[in-house]
Amino acid sequence: MTDAAKTAGVLFSGGQDSATVLAWALERFGHVETIGFDYGQRHDIEMQVRADLLGRIRSDFSCWADRLGDDHLVDLSGFGAISDTALTREREIDTLGSGLPNTFVPGRNLVFLTYAAAIGWRRGFADLVAGMCEADFSGYPDCRKDTLDKQMEAISMGLDRDFILHTPLMHRSKAQAWQLAGELGGDALVELIRTGSHTCYVGERGALHAWGYGCGACPACELRAQGWTEFAQP
Length: 234
Fold this sequence. Notes:
45% helix; Rossmann fold; five-stranded parallel β-sheet
């Protein structure tokens, strides 16, 4: 059900999850603006991919084209410079002593939400949409619903405005995320996300696998591939 009077800001990286929730937002809000973050990520190919995806959504999905508004790209390279992780340095992906993968960028989602809300405050919208998920993820603590709820409470208090975070994938597996994409935009959207989005942590964009582009070995590729297999062969 669309609320034509409301605007939403979507945290859009160009990955599978953010592309899916962008479609979700376009179905529900009369106007949608996208927000991307260049934080010095190793897989900076996503910056090009996200621009291409936005263009394809405008050209291939006429029902959404008029609702898709401005794109805001935020330079957070200084944040990446203080993050000694496998997503911001050329190093082998491994597991830390804490049990977390070294692809965890401390505070990343918290910073993203703060900047997104600041943009929303200036642009006049209070609904934010993001692809965080705690059902099928790498264990990042800033993807958990409890963490995000507390962050949004702090943001709302700090900006003196009630911001709402929508996380439609929070309790969905990767297979269910593919299914949701199909429900929202049919086979055309599934194919666009499969071939047009980027999730691989090392930025590999060579061979096209059944589930999309990627190295096939990093945690992001493994989750995506497993989800695709469950979705395609239920």
